[in-house]
Amino acid sequence: MTERRQEPLRYRDAGVARDYDQLRQTGWVRRRREAMMRRLLARGLAGLAPGSLVLDVPCGTGRITPWLAARGLRVIGADLSRDMLGEAQAKVAGVRGCLGLLVGDAAQLPFADQSLDAALLVRFLHLVEDAERVPLFRELSRVVRGRVLLHVGLQAWTAKRLLRRVRGVPLKPVKVQWKPLLAQLEEGGLRVERVHRKLPFASTSVVVVCRPAHSVQGA
Ligand SMILES: C[S@@+](CC[C@H](N)C(=O)[O-])C[C@H]1O[C@@H](n2cnc3c(N)ncnc32)[C@H](O)[C@@H]1O
Predict the structure, then answer these.
(1) DSSP 8-class letter at 79
(2) Which numbered atom of ligand 1 lies nearest the CA of 136?
(3) How close is the Cα of 10 to the center of ligand 1, in Å?
(4) Best residue among 75, 79, 149 to mutate for probing ligand 1, ranked by most atoms within 8 Å of CB
(5) pTM of the entire predicted model
(6) pLDDT tens track for 88-108
(7) Which domains does the chain have, with CATH numbers?
């Protein structure tokens, strides 16, 4: 089994799930990064009507699920890991707009064709092998009638990476590259509408807003 194939399984662990938020949200830098990610997602969601039905997949520990509901959206969270969903449960319980959580594979969703207004994939694509991305995008374009938002760290030159390169420090591989991603989206039936960048040359994070090809044709 390749390293990338094993990585999603890491989250099927109570300890990993329990520590997940703590590792991402403690400290000023991380909190700032989190706030910037939400701002970027908010730009991608702009114009979505209140009450729109949105899928947060994978929702993990529910890091953004209640935040989406607080924006007036009706949200369903889905994830492969029961441990991650266990952490999410406490956050969504009783929250207006959070319709429920389900155990499920993002590439095999239990929804009817074009039944969702939007789907958000946050910090997920780096876990999905190239060969598995087209079937994933096909499934999203089947169930979504509106837009699909992908929050990803793209292969790009940032000041930090350039500095590392100059110093001869080995660079961490970035798993999502723009050109192959564009081709995979196209083959999976998703058209890129716009890209929101966090901070060019300071961060590799972007939110890619796509529309299923059927909704573009029908527009
Ligand atoms: C890095 S976490 C991201 C979770 C959440 N979106 C966030 O930003 O905090 C990756 C999540 O993907 C889930 N996952 C991995 N493969 C999946 C699949 N095929 N379908 C649904 N969830 C999956 C894992 O269980 C884990 O909760």
Answers:
(1) E
(2) 19
(3) 10
(4) 79
(5) 0.89
(6) 999 999 999 999 999 999 999
(7) 3-218 (3.40.50.150)
